[in-house]
Amino acid sequence: METTRFGSLEIEDDKVISMPAGILGFAERRFILLTPPNLGPFCWLQAVDNPNLAFVVTDVENLVYDCSYKLTEDECCALELGEDGKVIYLLIVNMAAEPQDITVNLRGPIVLNPDRLIARQLVMEGESYPLRYPFFPIRGN
After folding, report:
1. Where residue 141 falls among pLDDT bands split at 50, 70, 90?
2. Whole-prediction pTM value?
3. Of all residues in the chain, what percent are helix, strand and coil, respectively (each to 5)?
4. What are phi and psi of 131, to 5 degrees?
5. DSSP H/E element including 77
6. How much is the pLDDT for 138?
7. Of which family is this protein a member (predicted)?
8. Phi/psi of residue 61, each to 5°?
9. What is the distance, to the nearest Å, from the Cα of residue 29 to the centroid of all Cα atoms in its chain?
10. How many other β-carbons are positioned within 10 Å of the β-carbon of residue 117?
11. Which of 41, 59, 68, 69 has fewest C-beta within 10 Å?
12. Distance between CA 79 and CA 61 in Å, rounded?
């Protein structure tokens, strides 16, 4: 696979994440998670079939914020969740030159079934899920 950011990569078929509904605004349906060294809590969600498309993402567990996403029965079925229902919530990161300006999108998390490698983007309604939430806590003076 060729990528704009990482050059030529060998990827195993059993590492490809299927996103049947894609990411809002994009046609790509197959992705792979890349974790380059020294990227800290971030990784790349690289489109397999589009070398130019990659998103910086982070696990919601890395965020200092109490996110409580709830999956509907239809979403659980689409993700082919088993009885234990283990999922990973990835947040798309808006990088910035200054660390205090880095934000994450809480309104459109990507939920991943790590066992089946099936993912979907959720679209959350309401003000409690901002599009640009600071990744690093803002410290008082």
Report:
1. very low
2. 0.91
3. 10, 30, 60
4. -75, -30
5. helix 73-78
6. 67
7. Belongs to the FliW family.
8. -65, -20
9. 13
10. 18
11. 68
12. 20
